[in-house]
Specification:
By secondary structure, the chain is of the alpha+beta class. 25% of the residues lie in helices and 25% in strands.
């Protein structure tokens, strides 16, 4: 699913270290750690009617990731919020907005991997775009098609998945495979062959658990975070299940479990909840958006409408 360019984004102002710059003139130094080695952390935020949903959870994950990477300086929560507000105001944005906030280790005095070469403090980029949820489909549409990628997610002893870092080459290569197959996205397995996540989203399935139990009560199931980050939309769905008395299980899921699921959907800030119709050419359930996916999508949209941190006036 290729995102379309929105003409409202033609003259965006990008915030780089507090300076607002037209998108056509915005840039960072070739000595910046992002350019040198993808050495940065990032978060995606979504603005709903002047409020950012789960803002503090996202900024805390940004802080934890930067701390894990041993950044010498990390802006405070209030400093980050101020730059977000300034960017939204400059672009006259109040709703239907996606923000990508990036924090790099900063500019190096000379090219090289050694973090001691970073002596100028971090680089902060706030990019806000007019962007509706990228996977939002009306009921009755075709749903997402996924394939299983040959690219594996790292195990924690290779790279801790809880560091939300900018080196996304694994995800990009998995997306290349999806594009070549004519699919929307790619599922990625861990080193053991269990489902980890998709290339840009977390994954849930709905079905009986255990599969041979004879109990057809639908159970929402999702992989553990052994090989994927602790997603904030993912956790919101788990919390919604708990609040609504819906059984939700985090466990190892093989592709056999996935193929036999009654429903499948993905989660993420960029696309919210998006239902999946086919995986590896196989129809999931009856090939239509399932009742549980509809229910959780409605609950999620209601939650985003009533919760959030106010960042701009409508």
């Amino acid at each position: 699913m290729l995102q379309k360019f929105d003409e409202k984004n033609r003259d965006l102002l990008i915030n780089i270290n507090g300076e607002l710059i037209h998108r056509d003139r915005a840039g960072i130094s070739p000595f910046d750690s992002l350019v040198q080695g993808g050495d940065g952390v990032w978060e995606g935020l979504r603005v709903y009617e002047g409020k950012i949903f789960k803002l503090d959870e996202h900024l805390e994950r940004l802080r934890r990731s930067a701390k894990a990477l041993a950044f010498a300086e990390i802006p405070s929560r209030d400093a980050l919020v101020e730059e977000i507000k300034k960017t939204l105001a400059a672009n006259d944005m109040t709703d239907g907005v996606h923000i990508r906030i990036t924090l790099s280790r900063g500019t190096k005095v000379t090219s090289g991997m050694d973090p001691r070469l970073n002596q100028a403090g971090p680089t902060l980029i706030v990019l806000a775009e007019h962007k509706v949820p990228v996977y939002r489909d009306a009921e009755g549409s075709s749903g997402l098609s996924l394939i299983t990628s040959s690219i594996r997610r790292f195990a924690p002893d290779m790279m801790d998945p809880n560091i939300h870092h900018n080196n996304l080459i694994q995800s990009i290569m998995a997306k290349v495979e999806a594009n070549a197959s004519g699919a929307d996205d790619a599922l990625m397995l861990d080193q053991r062959g269990f489902l980890a996540e998709a290339n840009a989203t977390h994954v849930f399935v709905v079905g009986a658990y255990p599969a041979h139990s004879g109990d057809d009560t639908p159970v929402v199931q999702t992989p553990t975070t052994a090989a994927c980050p602790e997603g904030i939309t993912r956790q919101t769905v788990i919390d919604l299940c708990n609040a609504e008395g819906i059984r939700c299980v985090e466990r190892d899921l093989s592709m056999t479990h996935v193929y036999n699921a009654d429903e499948c959907f993905t989660t993420g800030t960029m696309g919210e909840l998006a239902w999946v119709s086919t995986i590896d050419g196989r129809k999931i359930g009856d090939g239509k958006m399932g009742a549980m996916t509809k229910r959780l999508s409605a609950l999620f949209q209601a939650k985003t409408a009533r919760e959030g941190v106010v960042v701009c006036e409508r």
